[in-house]
Amino acid sequence: MYDLGDIVEMKKPHACQANRWKIIRMGADIKIKCTNCGHIVMMTRRDFEKKMKKILEKAPEK
């Protein structure tokens, strides 16, 4: 399962042609940030789970 700080790949690439997103907020809504251009997108957890393809990198353990 995904967690805060993970790098994920979405089904569709961003307009900047990158497809790496970092999860920066979790709750009822999830906020992700493009690792290439820094664009931030907020979506419901349900939408995020539909649009996420896979986890690329797990966040380092604290």
Measured as a percent range, the helix fraction is: 10-25%
Order of helices and strands: EEEEHE
Q: Could you give the count of β-strands?
A: 5
Query: How many domains is the backbone divided into?
Result: 1
User: How many H/I helical runs?
Assistant: 1
Query: What's the overall average pLDDT, rounded?
Result: 95
Q: Ranges with pLDDT <50 over ≥5 residues?
A: none
Largest sheet descriptor = 5 strands, antiparallel
Fraction of residues in β-strands: 35-45%
- Cα radius of gyration in angstroms: 11 Å
What would you call the structural class? Answer: mainly beta
Distance between the termini: 17 Å
Query: Which sequence of strands runs across the widest sheet?
Result: 4-3-2-1-5
Shape: globular
Structure description:
The protein contains one helix and five strands. It has 62 residues and is mainly beta. The chain has one domain (6-57). It has a five-stranded antiparallel sheet with strand order 4-3-2-1-5. The protein is globular and about 30 Å long. The model has no long low-confidence stretch (mean pLDDT 95). This is GTP-binding and nucleic acid-binding protein YchF. InterPro entries: DUF951 (IPR009296).
List its salient traits.
mainly beta; GTP-binding and nucleic acid-binding protein YchF; 5 strands; 62 residues; DUF951
Fold blueprint:
Blueprint (H helix, E strand, L loop, with lengths): L6 E4 L10 E5 L3 E6 L5 E5 H7 E6 L5
Antiparallel strand pairs: 1-2, 1-5, 2-3, 3-4
Pfam families: DUF951 (PF06107)
Protein name: GTP-binding and nucleic acid-binding protein YchF
InterPro entries: DUF951 (IPR009296)
